[in-house]
């Protein structure tokens, strides 16, 4: 349709020109212009028309050339932008006119230029933040080549880098704030005045005075540790002065009102507190010089108590004991005693874990010995209420604990001796030798008790051993049967006992021995021959006769046996031994 409109427009243009020329001819005719003039005028008209058309043609040709040049330029820009922005090259559609090609390329170039400018602006903002953070943290900035357009990946990484530095800055600010606050607090507690530039800057209220670098953090951390060590040193010095003042106070038995002032003094800073305690110590030392003899005696008492706590033996006490005999009370003598007291206190503090373990061992050792004593008591089986079970459990617990404690002490003592280069002595012995000696004493005591029991048992056995009966004497053993004895049967038994008594009394020994019923005699065959020849009945023969004994319980048996023994004149102790 557009082609038809242009063709119609061109046809109308030709028509208009023809009408215009026709009118010009009519005008020329009416005027009476000659042919030559008409030709000249027509050539002028033709010239104007040709010039106008040529001018228009030239302009349109220039436009076409310009559009083509713009297309080429846009294509080059697109190639460059595609490379800079790391995007795919732009591809034109087919069958496009020059004007459409130029428009599409121009729009694409404008879009890429806009994206490029946005990236560069974002890069500029992020780099500015990155540089500020890197200066504050003394870290390396994120590298992007200058003059280049960053890719989306690079911008994302730079953004993450800036966020990471921002978080690191927040953390370091917290660390710096904490360190500076701790340093300020320590200085206030100690009454310490800043001496170096670092100390002055650390308590300065200006938060931007420090760069948040690792080196500065290390410097502040080191300063804090130094101040903490100094505080510990001041506390130790104050505690020593306080301990010294307390020791002097107890030695001198100062008046109570002064003691109240002594205890209720208000502490400001550690330095002021140390000066205050130092003044107290100096004051008490002056008082001490006025009571030198009494003070030395009290120090000696303290020293003896401490020696006992440390379980020192005579050899360990001997080197200093010579000063106990020195009655020439001087400041030098007091200084010697104080030095020995401090030395012993230091030893006690260092050895306290081992000494506590030893005390624990001694307590359990005493329990062990008590259990051993109870185990040898025959009356313990008469206890009721589960006491034997509890005693058994406690005994097993102690027996299990003792080796464990000894092994722990062995490890501690070995470490002590390795570090100190000397033996750890208890009552003049090495601690494991001391424990071994306790076990050896226990073993010897057990052996002694055992031998005593064996001796007693042997003596009892000898007492119960029968003597050799005289010829014709008869010994009968009561049997637990219920056969009724006749007077004729009782007579031989009485005779037997009398014969035994007469035989034993006629022997050289003054000790009377009784035969234990139920035991075979050394002259068994001989006795049987004698009994057979005498025609007397032996109770054992009665028990083994054809008459079966009436069944009875064990308690009935023992009661019957006791009854018969009593009725037959046997000793109650003999029956008890049988039971």
UniProtKB/TrEMBL annotation:
InterPro entries: MAP65_Ase1_PRC1. It comes from the Eukaryota. GO terms for biological process: mitotic spindle midzone assembly. Pfam families: MAP65_ASE1 (PF03999). Gene3D superfamilies: 1.20.58.1520. GO terms for molecular function: microtubule binding. The keyword Coiled coil applies. The keyword rRNA processing does not apply. One of its GO terms (cellular component) is cytoplasm. Signal peptide: none annotated. PANTHER family: PROTEIN REGULATOR OF CYTOKINESIS 1 (PTHR19321:SF6), PROTEIN REGULATOR OF CYTOKINESIS 1 PRC1-RELATED (PTHR19321). This is Protein regulator of cytokinesis 1-like.
């Amino acid at each position: 349709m557009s082609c038809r409109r242009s063709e119609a427009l061109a046809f109308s243009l030709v028509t208009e020109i023809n009408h215009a020329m026709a009118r010009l001819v009519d005008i020329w005719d009416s005027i009476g212009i000659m042919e030559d003039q008409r030709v000249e005028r027509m050539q002028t008209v033709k010239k104007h028309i040709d010039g106008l058309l040529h001018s228009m043609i030239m302009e349109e040709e220039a436009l076409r050339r310009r559009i083509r040049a713009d297309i080429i330029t846009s294509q080059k820009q697109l190639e460059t932008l595609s490379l800079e922005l790391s995007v795919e090259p732009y591809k034109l559609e087919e069958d496009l006119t020059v004007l459409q090609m130029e428009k599409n390329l121009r729009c694409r170039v404008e879009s890429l230029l806009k994206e490029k400018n946005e990236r560069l602006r974002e890069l500029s903002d992020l780099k500015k933040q990155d540089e500020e953070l890197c200066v504050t943290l003394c870290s390396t900035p994120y590298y992007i080549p200058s003059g280049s357009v960053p890719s989306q990946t690079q911008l994302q990484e730079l953004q993450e880098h800036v966020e990471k530095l921002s978080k690191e800055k927040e953390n370091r600010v917290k660390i710096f704030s904490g360190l500076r606050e701790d340093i300020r607090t320590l200085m206030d507690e100690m009454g310490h005045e800043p001496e170096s530039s670092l100390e002055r800057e650390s308590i300065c209220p200006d938060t931007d005075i420090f760069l948040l670098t690792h080196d500065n953090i290390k410097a502040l951390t080191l300063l804090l540790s130094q101040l903490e060590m100094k505080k510990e040193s001041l506390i130790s010095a104050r505690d020593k002065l306080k301990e010294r003042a307390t020791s002097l106070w107890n030695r001198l038995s100062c008046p109570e009102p002064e003691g109240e002032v002594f205890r209720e003094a208000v502490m400001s800073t550690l330095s002021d507190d140390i000066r205050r305690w130092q003044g107290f110590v100096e004051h008490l030392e002056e008082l001490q010089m006025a009571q030198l003899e009494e003070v030395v005696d009290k120090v000696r008492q303290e020293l003896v108590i401490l020696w006992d706590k440390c379980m020192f033996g005579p050899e360990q006490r001997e080197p200093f004991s010579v000063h106990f005999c020195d009655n020439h009370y001087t400041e030098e003598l007091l200084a010697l005693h104080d030095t020995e007291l401090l030395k012993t206190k230091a030893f006690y503090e260092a050895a306290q874990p081992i000494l506590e373990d030893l005390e624990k061992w001694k307590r359990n050792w005493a329990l062990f010995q008590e259990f051993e004593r109870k185990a040898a008591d025959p009356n313990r089986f008469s206890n009721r209420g589960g006491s034997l079970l509890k005693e058994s459990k406690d005994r097993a617990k102690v027996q299990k604990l003792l080796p464990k404690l000894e092994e722990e002490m062995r490890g501690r003592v070995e470490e002590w001796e390795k570090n100190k280069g000397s033996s750890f002595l208890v009552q003049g012995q090495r601690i494991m030798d001391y424990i071994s000696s306790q076990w050896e004493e226990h073993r010897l005591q057990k052996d002694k008790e055992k031998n005593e029991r064996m001796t007693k048992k042997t003596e009892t056995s000898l007492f119960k051993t029968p003597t050799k009966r005289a010829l014709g004497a008869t010994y009968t053993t009561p049997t637990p049967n219920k056969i009724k004895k006749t007077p004729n049967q009782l007579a031989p038994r009485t005779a037997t006992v009398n014969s035994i008594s007469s035989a034993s009394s006629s022997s050289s020994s003054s000790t009377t021995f009784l035969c234990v019923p139920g035991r075979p005699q050394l002259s068994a065959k001989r006795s049987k021959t004698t009994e057979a020849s005498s025609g007397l009945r032996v109770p054992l023969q009665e028990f083994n006769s054809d008459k079966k004994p009436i069944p009875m319980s064990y308690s009935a048996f023992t009661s019957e046996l006791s009854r018969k023994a009593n009725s037959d004149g046997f000793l109650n102790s003999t029956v008890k031994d049988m039971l």
